[in-house]
């Protein structure tokens, strides 16, 4: 099984501009998973993970299911208010942090090194997962940051997190939705502005045997 060679490649290639973005394998649309009803039956929060890294194909399928482009017009698997598509998805692993581009189905390196601890925050179990997916609400992209906008963007982040939950249940992966994290450290690491707010995160891995 291939491991997360994507991130190793980023580290080995350094910071040259041509090395910043890597295309993911195409999502496997014929993937065999549970039925819809079996998926809901299996959905649960899991806080223990195998140390095994996700395969490239599993990561690709997971990210596409989470917030990938599923139509030629660029619309996504997760709904957003007025189709603003303001939820940014970041992928944390032991090798580095990347931002997911739904339209290109690619990863762009943001920071090298293992920063899963700042996503885990005070809940150390989350750092044991090989991947942590972080949802950031971009209020600049949404076009407003009043109380109503905050409510809508928070709900949109919830839809994305639910996609993670459901894919993991269907595909035999383990995850749990979380709001605990070191927000200030994340904003500093990712270079976010005050209108780009970390909202939710999901550690993801194979179930611990």
Structural commentary:
With 209 residues, the protein is α+β, with helices and mostly antiparallel strands. It has a single domain (5-205), classed as NADH Oxidase. 33% of the residues lie in helices and 20% in strands. It has seven helices and seven strands. The protein has helices spanning 5-13, 36-42, 56-67, 116-120, 139-142, 147-171, 183-190, and strands spanning 21-23, 87-92, 96-101, 106-112, 131-138, 174-175, 196-205. The protein has a seven-stranded antiparallel beta sheet with strand order 1-4-3-2-5-7-6. Strand 2 (87-92) and strand 3 form a beta hairpin. The longest helix has 25 residues, at 147-171. The chain starts with a helix and ends with a strand.
């Amino acid at each position: 099984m291939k491991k997360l060679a994507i991130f190793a490649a980023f580290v080995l290639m350094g910071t040259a501009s041509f090395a910043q973005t890597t295309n993911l394998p195409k999502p496997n649309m014929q993937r065999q998973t549970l039925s819809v009803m079996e998926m809901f039956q299996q959905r649960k929060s899991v806080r223990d993970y195998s140390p095994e890294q996700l395969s490239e194909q599993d990561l690709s399928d997971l990210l596409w299911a989470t917030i990938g482009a599923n139509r030629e017009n660029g619309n996504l698997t997760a709904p957003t208010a007025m189709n603003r598509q303001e939820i940014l998805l970041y992928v944390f692993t032991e090798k580095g942090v990347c931002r997911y581009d739904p339209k290109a189905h690619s990863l762009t390196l943001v920071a090298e090194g293992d920063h899963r601890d700042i996503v885990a925050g005070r809940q150390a179990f989350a750092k044991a997962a090989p991947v942590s997916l972080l949802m950031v609400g971009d209020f600049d992209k949404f076009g407003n940051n009043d109380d109503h906008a905050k409510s809508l963007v928070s709900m949109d982040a919830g839809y994305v997190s639910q996609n993670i939950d459901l894919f993991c249940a269907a595909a035999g992966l383990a995850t749990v939705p979380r709001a605990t994290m070191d927000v200030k450290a994340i904003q500093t690491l990712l270079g976010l502005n005050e209108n780009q707010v970390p909202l939710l995160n999901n550690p993801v891995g194979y179930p611990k045997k």
